[in-house]
Design brief:
elongated, 5 helices, 5 strands, alpha+beta, 23% strand, two-stranded parallel ribbon
C-alpha cells in the first residue's frame, strides 16, 4: 500500500453542526480540490452534539484529493464568554469590566483546553486562561 502524501493543512473555525460549502469552507478547501460538501457532512455529523459553540478544525489534504480532519477544543474566549454569560468582551479593557468568572470555572475551562494548550500542567493552563480573561475585560473572582 502506497503512502499518501499530505499536500496541505488547513485550519478553520466553524460553528458546530452548521458547516456549509459557502465561505469560509469553500474558499479554504476549494483551491485544493477537496469536495466541500463531503467535508461539511462529515464535520456536521462529528460536531452535532456541540451545537452553539465554535469548533476549530485542522484538515489534512492528501495528494489524491482525500482529506482527514482533527477537531480541537473550542477557543478560550468562547468558553470564557459562555461561563461569564456575556455576548462579547470589554471594548476598553482595563477601564470597564465585561463580566466575571470564578476560579472553579477557570479550572474547568483550563482542564478542557489542556490538550490543545502549550502548557505542561493544569496550573500553567489556568494562568493562560486567566490571561485571556483579563485581556477580554473579564475579572476572575476568588
Amino acid at each position: 500500500m502506497a503512502k499518501r502524501r499530505v499536500t496541505a493543512v488547513v485550519k478553520i473555525q466553524l460553528p458546530a453542526g452548521q458547516a456549509t460549502p459557502a465561505p469560509p469552507v469553500g474558499t479554504a478547501l476549494g483551491p485544493h480540490g477537496v469536495q466541500t460538501m463531503e467535508f461539511c457532512k462529515q464535520y456536521n455529523a462529528a460536531t452535532e452534539n456541540q451545537k452553539g459553540t465554535t469548533i476549530p478544525v485542522e484538515i489534512s489534504i492528501y495528494d489524491d484529493k482525500s482529506f482527514t480532519f482533527i477537531l480541537k477544543t473550542p477557543p478560550t474566549p468562547v468558553l470564557l464568554r459562555q461561563a461569564a454569560g456575556i455576548e462579547k468582551g470589554s471594548a476598553t479593557t482595563g477601564r470597564t469590566n465585561a463580566g466575571s468568572v470564578t476560579n472553579a470555572q477557570v479550572e474547568e475551562i483550563a482542564s478542557l483546553k489542556l490538550p490543545d494548550l502549550n502548557a505542561n500542567d493544569l496550573e500553567a493552563a489556568k494562568k493562560q486562561v486567566i490571561g485571556t480573561a483579563q485581556s477580554m475585560g473579564i475579572s476572575v473572582a476568588g
